[in-house]
Protein: Large ribosomal subunit protein bL32
Amino acid sequence: MGVPKRRVSKARKNKRRSQWKIAAPKLVSCPHCHQLMIPHRVCKNCGYYDGRQVVNME
Structure:
């Protein structure tokens, strides 16, 4: 069984948890309007995805 033999110190616990980081979102430019967008998503500015308009932007 996975039972700890000794108490885990604060330093050891914090060293282990130091790897828990949030990554910045990867951004690419939209080929239609050249605004930054998340890849494989519909562009929030123009509504285009994969070379065609899928959302009507007013």
Notes: The longest helix spans residues 10-17. DSSP finds one helix and four strands in the chain. The chain has a mean pLDDT of 93.
